[in-house]
Amino acid sequence: MARIVWKRRNLVLCVCFGLLTAIATVIAVVSIKTLCNNQVSLKQLDELCGLYKDNKVTGDLCEALCVDKSLKFRNCLHINHGKVVLLLSWNSTFDVVMKSKHADLASFFAFDFKKIGTERLLPIPSPSLLREAITGLLRSRFGQDATNSSDLDLLDIRGSESEVQYRGRILTKWLLFQQDEYLLMHYLSHNPNTPELYGNCGHYYVMEFLPPGKYLHDGNTELKFFPSEWKRRTDVAFKLMDMVQSFDEDFQSPLHFCDMKEANFGSDHYGKVKPLDLDMAVFEDFLKDYYSQSNCSGDSDCSFFDCNGWCMVDQRKCLPFRTNTNIQTLCENIFIGDLWHNFFIGLLSSPPVSIRQELTQLLDRCRNPAVGQLREIIGYKCSMIRDSTHLLPSTETNECREAIGNLKLFLTVESRNILRLLKEIVSRDLDT
Predict the structure, then answer these.
(1) Residue 97: beta bridge partners?
(2) What are the CA-CA distances from residue 208 to residues 47, 97, 151, 189, 313 (Å)?
(3) Which segments in the chain show pLDDT lower than 50?
(4) What are phi and psi of 208, to 5 degrees?
(5) Residue 285 neighbours by CB under 8 Å, 6+ apart
(6) How far apart are CA 46 and CA 215, in angstroms?
(7) DSSP class of residue 365?
């Protein structure tokens, strides 16, 4: 009798989750449709094609969009803080995504860093000044090593272009370089873990369409309670771990994914999991600059979305490094997910009994690494110190740098150990 009641309760629980997620999905779709008007989107694309025909912008996909129409608008996916995301069909064979940080040209900055507006004539700087401006953008986003971009070599090559065509090409490059996601995909174009960038028309860029699938979909929470779905969910988890490992190890410095949530990932034709949105993916130098410029009264003031920092309260300054890791936020936000009556409902919820306790303990360790003692050491060695004439922040001393280096080393080693152990535990169950 008790078993029947338990089954009924489970059935009611699943039905309730299904109804709640369905209602949430409907509300989300209605709100998106309210913001995303297909007629407005079509008008914006017509205006883009008008700019192309007047040689005011260029792009390797403008002909496909504006002339032979092999790129066809399907619908507007969403608009978020001015950023437009559209779904298009290419040659009626596969879908692609078209994005822009702003729908209209007037919202971007001109070369003099004033808003472009609608009427004023845009000044085109000399090649040397343009190279300096773009180099500054690349350095601020990626650090010193990105300034050797081949794009810089093409800025002052005119060839047979007219003055209008040259202005259009330079303006297009400048508009694209103001968009963080485009820059990152362009810079990482040969990395298999990032979406493929197909090209652009003006300030709109076209990239790979990556549908989320049912296991990375916000509306499919109930699937995480069914044991029969465990193997498929662990397959997605393995792919997410491989992607995070690539972010940590494949570049000259780690790529920090600061907006870690299920809705930001999808799968390509081959089932490979990739990020859908790279606006909040940043390299070490960017985070270091962000933290060093931030005043704080608590740790929350030092967070860049999911990339956490620590506040040196006595100095009202953030320590110049990230204090959590990609694997830590992957565990917390996706593998564990939200808590419901002390049960987590993330991607690795409801594991088989044979590994349940061990996996739960490891996920908790992943979410809460033991850094308390290291933090105390940093707090002691990086507090304010006094010399004979000045009060100096000891973040500039060797003792503080050494303490910070030890914490970063611990987090790096712990992340690798967590990844290894997670794969071992889950693989052990799949092999039995």
Answers:
(1) 87, 207
(2) 24, 6, 22, 12, 44
(3) 1-34, 119-120, 386-393
(4) -60, 140
(5) 142, 143, 144, 253
(6) 37
(7) H
pLDDT at 397: 79
Instruction: Tell me if residue 20 falls in helix, strand or coil.
Output: helix
User: For residue 59, which of 45, 38, 75 has the smallest C-alpha distance?
Assistant: 45
pTM of the model: 0.83
User: How far, in Å, CA of 241 to CA of 222, rounded?
Assistant: 23
Distances (CA, A) of 338 to 103, 346, 365, 403, 404: 34, 7, 17, 33, 31
Distance CA 430, CA 432 (A): 6
Q: How far apart are CA 201 and CA 378, in angstroms?
A: 49
Share of the chain above pLDDT 70, in %: 78
* Rounded alpha-carbon distances, angstroms, from residue 21 to 15, 16, 26, 220, 221: 10, 9, 9, 7, 7
What does the DSSP 8-state code read for residue 300?
A: G
Paired residues of 83 in beta bridges: 80
- Show Cβ contacts of residue 206 under 8 Å, excluding neighbours closer than 6 positions: 61, 71, 88, 96, 97, 98, 197, 198, 199, 200
What is the DSSP code string of 129-154?
Answer: HHHHHHHHHHHHHH-GGGGG-GGGGG
Contacts of 108 (CB under 8 A, 6+ apart): 101, 102, 115, 116, 175, 178, 203
Locate tokens 């499919």: which residue? 220
Residue 196 has phi, psi (to 5 degrees) of -75, 135
* CA–CA dist 153, 156 (Å, integer): 7
What CA–CA distance (Å, rounded) separates 76 from 40? 9
Counting every residue written for the chain, the total comes to 432
Rounded to an integer, what distance in angstroms lies between the CA atom of residue 123 and that of residue 63?
A: 27
Close Cβ partners of 103 (under 8 Å, ≥ 6 residues apart): 44, 79, 82, 84
Q: What's the CA gap between 60 and 86, in Å, rounded?
A: 18
